[in-house]
User: Which sequence fits this backbone?
């Protein structure tokens, strides 16, 4: 990339609905030509829109995004080169009380290849956090189907995080 810029607008439009937050974003990355590739190459572009709503102890979120790699129409870009990505994310977080919260999130991403084939990667995650004074203990577990857009590649991970503020 030669240069890039991003524009993000976030907030509660007109403060009309308490707990509502809306975000939209755009990014452009100017690209140099790739060695050995011929044909037009456009700038890589991304757009995203997200909405979240907090009501009582629950927060819900949804986001859609699109990224164009700027390679469409380029010769010799490779059959397995990604042309674009279409992404969807959603989740819910629930504060059981002042100390304990639980959440679930899901991500789905479609990758379009130069062959026209589309591969879908799906991820699910769960987390729990407990806060005591200045210390938080968190547990998470994630599972990804078709990880790295490779059909049949499943990856699972989990962990415990302890953070202390003083």
Assistant:
């Amino acid at each position: 990339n030669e240069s890039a810029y991003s524009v993000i607008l976030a907030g509660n439009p007109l403060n009309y609905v308490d707990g509502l937050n809306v975000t939209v974003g755009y990014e452009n990355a100017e690209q140099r030509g790739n060695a050995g590739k011929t044909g037009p190459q456009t700038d890589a572009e991304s757009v995203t829109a997200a909405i979240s709503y907090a009501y009582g102890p629950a927060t819900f979120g949804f986001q859609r995004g699109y990224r164009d790699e700027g390679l469409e129409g380029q010769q010799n870009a490779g059959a397995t080169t990604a042309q674009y990505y279409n992404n969807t994310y959603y989740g819910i977080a629930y504060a059981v009380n002042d100390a304990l919260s639980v959440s679930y999130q899901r991500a789905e991403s479609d990758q379009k290849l130069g062959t026209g084939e589309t591969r879908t990667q799906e991820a699910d995650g769960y987390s729990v956090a407990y806060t005591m004074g200045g210390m938080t203990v968190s547990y998470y577990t994630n599972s990804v189907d078709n990880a790295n857009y490779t059909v049949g590649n499943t990856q699972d991970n989990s962990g415990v995080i302890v953070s202390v503020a003083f």
